[in-house]
Write a structure and sequence with these properties.
345 residues, alpha/beta, OB fold (Dihydrolipoamide Acetyltransferase, E2P), Nucleotidyltransferase, domain 5, 5-stranded mixed sheet, 33% helix
Length: 345
């Protein structure tokens, strides 16, 4: 039996053995109802799709993300190559290094959250846009009432809401927590060196230009691999990720988005809001409400929460914004860990 050959050189239909990092495992059923598991694996030579029939796994430990020695054959099913497992067993990081000559790539979770503010230049457009919307009869009744009662106040309100669009707003800060993906089980856990970053506002409260903050963020993600790593966040599919890439375009930064946001099930992203609604794109819930339901401590305080970011920015309280951004990321990581622990991926 051949063993430990580069993934790209695996012969078709021949029994071989490999050492790999399994990065994901999902149960599936055939049309006839037969249970099997789709898994993704990788080592220093490349990536590989695995298939494990339920009867093969019956007398073995449950296959889950971690370090494994695997035996099987490469087969083609519906034009897709899969390595069908006949045996597998857990291995240590030392065994992996012995056969691969490199450290295993531990799947990483990049938990992110952004804070945004309206562009100063947008203020000049707000009055004209409100007037046009009112004149054309396209203004909602409650907004029309506010507009007629106090035009200046409604203009200010609309200006601040410009922060919710990459057309009229910009990135002020991006907080990132980098650590191992939750739900992994490595016999010899390798330290991932959990780290926190904030791009846009430094540790002294100094503001960075948006292009510099975005470029630093992109640099952190330069080796992101959606086959093993994942981006975690609350409503990041509907807001954070599109906003970041749109502002990269505005700032003429060359970037190829790390994930395909147009897919129904976006590979490499764990959106806690989408997961709360089990994939329903119409469902909405705030991070604060979700944290309350799960018994987690809120990231908000009396002095700092999302609706007060503009006022804090106007007063130059950038350190408070930075810390709030980090608290949101830490809370999102807690929600993510709870969801994976009890609902799986």
């Amino acid at each position: 039996m051949k063993g430990n050959i580069p993934i790209a050189e695996i012969p078709h239909g021949e029994e071989i053995w490999l050492v790999v990092v399994v990065t994901s495992v999902r149960p599936r059923r055939t049309q006839q109802g037969r249970l099997f598991y789709d898994a993704a694996a990788r080592n220093a030579s490349g990536s590989l799709a695995l298939k494990l029939w339920d009867e093969t796994s019956a007398l073995r430990p449950a296959l889950q993300p971690g370090l494994w020695g695997i035996t099987g054959r490469l087969e083609k099913f519906q034009e897709r190559l899969q390595f069908v497992l006949s045996d597998y067993r857990p291995i240590t990081a030392a065994q992996y290094r012995e056969h691969q000559g490199a450290d295993p790539h531990i799947p990483r979770a990049f938990t992110i959250d952004i804070e945004t503010v309206a562009l100063p230049a947008f203020r000049e457009r707000t009055a004209a846009q409100l007037e046009r919307t009112f004149r054309l009869g396209k203004m909602r009744l409650e907004q029309q009432q506010r507009y007629l009662e106090d035009i200046a106040a409604e203009e200010e309100r609309s200006y601040q809401l410009g922060s919710l669009s990459a057309i009229s707003g910009r990135v002020l800060a991006i907080a990132v927590h980098l650590g191992a993906t939750t739900g992994t089980n490595f016999p010899e856990q390798l330290p991932t060196g959990d780290q926190e970053y904030v791009f846009g506002i430094d540790a002294l409260g100094n503001e960075q230009p948006e292009p510099e903050a975005l470029q630093a963020f992109l640099t952190l993600f330069k080796d992101f691999d959606c086959e093993s790593d994942e981006i975690v966040g609350h409503n990041i599919l509907g807001f954070d990720l599109p906003f970041i890439f749109q502002r990269c375009l505005v700032n003429k930064l060359v970037v190829r988005p790390f994930v395909t946001l147009g897919d129904f099930d976006v590979h490499g992203v764990f959106d806690t809001m989408r997961r709360w609604w089990f994939g329903d794109r119409r469902g909405r819930v705030s991070l604060d409400d979700l944290a309350w339901a799960l018994g987690l401590e809120t990231s908000k305080s009396e002095a700092v929460e999302g609706s007060k970011i503009f006022d804090l920015y106007q007063r130059g309280q950038l350190l408070e914004i930075r810390e709030y951004n980090l608290r949101d990321v830490r809370l999102t990581r807690q929600v993510y860990e709870r969801m994976v622990a009890y609902l799986g991926r």
